[in-house]
Design goal:
Elements lengths: L3 E10 L4 E7 L11 E6 L9 E4 L8 E7 L7 H5 L7 E8 L9 E5 L4 H12 L7 E6 L8 H8 L3 E5 L8 E2 L4 H7 L7 E5 L1 H13 L7 E5 L1
Parallel strand pairs: 7-8, 7-11, 8-9, 9-10, 11-12
Antiparallel strand pairs: 1-2, 1-6, 2-5, 3-4, 3-6
The protein binds flavin-adenine dinucleotide.
Length: 223
Amino acid sequence: MSKYTVSVKSVESVTHDVLRIRTEKPPGLTFTPGQATELFIDKTGWETEGRPFTFTSLPDDEYLEFTIKTYASRKGVTNELRKLKGGDGLILNDIFGAIAYRGEGTFIAGGAGVTPFISIFRFLRSNSEIGNNKLIFANKTKADIILKQEFDSMLGTNFITILSDEKTEGYAHGLITVDFLKAHVTDFNRPFYVCGPPPMMDSLEAQLSDLKVDGKQIVKEEF
Ligand SMILES: Cc1cc2nc3c(=O)[nH]c(=O)nc-3n(C[C@H](O)[C@H](O)[C@H](O)COP(=O)(O)OP(=O)(O)OC[C@H]3O[C@@H](n4cnc5c(N)ncnc54)[C@H](O)[C@@H]3O)c2cc1C
């Protein structure tokens, strides 16, 4: 197990509550797209508060990137990350993660659950292998959609969004259901990559089971 301390290069806003944090990349650090690390803020009182975050840069990039949804009301690590500036330190611990690409399929994400798919799709795009992969991305409102433009340009009509708390033209409304999946997924024999909060994961697993999707086809991680 290696532990790395890295300096922050930049912090930008991606949405109203999502940050893009780039840091220097330590020599020797390797990961596969979809993997995460345990991250700590190198600041008194926070050095022991590790939280898992996914690398959204590519393994060959000269920097590390994280795309992080922040929760101001929880007064936890993500709220503290909102105060981060260039030159501040972050500590990276183990590298792990259940999500890895296994071939063309349907990706289903809720909110920050899309982060492992950012790295995977950027990797596929860099190899010209986006193919017929599909991303269904569920959010509360349009303003919560992370990297809409980038997904639109990478996936075109294979990027499908659904909003639970807002009725807006051009977006499906409600929660993902069996009927929604039947309307948008043409091949149920391909892999399903699923990542989101626990209630969404439970619901999707039940729906995919109803649709006779074999559990072995499902690559998943709960956020
Ligand atoms: C493998 C993996 C990879 C991940 N990658 C990313 C990523 O790349 N980007 C990303 O944005 N997220 C990612 N996550 C999720 C991320 O780890 C959490 O959002 C983060 O740990 C929250 O940390 P926090 O300290 O801000 O809040 P927490 O530690 O969740 O909460 C702090 C306190 O707030 C309270 N609290 C907790 N949950 C709630 C709630 N739902 N409502 C109200 N109060 C609550 C509790 O009192 C808790 O002690 C990943 C998760 C996993 C498992």
